[in-house]
Amino acid sequence: MPKLNVAADKNAPPCTWKQLNQDAAAIAVKERALASMLHAVILNQKSFAAALANHLAEKLSDSEFKALHIRETFLDVYAANPDVIQSASDDLRAVRDRDPASKSCLQVFLYFKGFLALQTHRIAHVLYKEGREMFAYHLQSRSSELFAVDIHPAAKIGSGIMFDHATGIVIGETAVIGNNCSVLHGVTLGGTGKDDEDRHPKIGEDVMIGAGAKVLGNIKVGNGSMIAAGSVVLKDVQPHCVVAGVPAKPVGGPCCDKPAQSMNQTL
Predict the structure, then answer these.
(1) What does the domain layout of the chain look like in residue ranges?
(2) Which CATH number fits domain 168-267: 2.40.440.10, 2.160.10.10, 2.60.200.40, 3.40.630.30?
């Protein structure tokens, strides 16, 4: 498993492949009902990439689209695009660091649907760029059904991303999210009409977008900014600015250096 790039909680074990195996082995002994699943998902896998490909394939498969074919495709993508598996590592660590509800990296890997939806999107994005659009759309559809997260496969998303709770997140075709951002449930990065060209928001790095916020149109949200919960953003947001309201307006300067990592949502 690649070395992580995001800042780590010094009190938490690192999210390494070795640590995932150690945690899985300990839980398999403690919770015998989970032992078979933990062996299949973690302990019998050869690498982080193999485990993630297998886990996602089993989740996304159905009677018409077998896990075997999904797994092979995902492994091919990881082999040809090592940055994709590195981003997955960064996302895993980001969630573990920022979400106080997470108790271990294993818990995030197995059960956090924001993490799983984002990793599905990363594969879909590669396939979309390669011209395999129908496969990409299929993954988008299945991810939406399973995780209640709808991301167009063309959307560009950086690494070290946390989708907190994730239910109801919608990200449009020409949207961009920079590195190390935190996006809460019910967030929409959408368009404002039927324009078929560049029509979705461009989110900078280290941005925190609160629950239920709507960011609409081809606008820019600067690095280190914070969008308060329930806001409707229709205009550019300057770097390190806090905006709130409907429509959103600036309500202050930086709440902290990196709001996406601190997750402090008070104004």
Answers:
(1) 1-148, 168-267
(2) 2.160.10.10
Buried b (16+ CB within 10 A) or exposed e, 200-238: bbbbbbbbbbbbbbbbbbbbebbbbbbbbbebbbeeebe
184 has which bridge partners? 164
Structure tokens at 154: 């063309």
93-121 per-position pLDDT tens digit: 999 999 999 999 999 999 999 999 999 99
| Torsion angles phi and psi, residue 188, rounded to 5 | -120, 125
Question: Which pTM was predicted?
Answer: 0.92
Hunting for tokens 């229709």 — which residue is that?
Answer: 234
Query: What CA–CA distance (Å, rounded) separates 188 from 193?
Result: 14
Asked if the 1-148 domain carries CATH number 1.10.3130.10, the reply is yes
DSSP state for residue 63 in the 8-state scheme: S
Residue 42, phi then psi, degrees to nearest 5? -120, -60
pLDDT in tens, 55-106: 999 999 998 899 999 999 999 999 999 999 999 999 999 999 999 999 999 9
Q: How far, in Å, CA of 187 to CA of 209, rounded?
A: 7
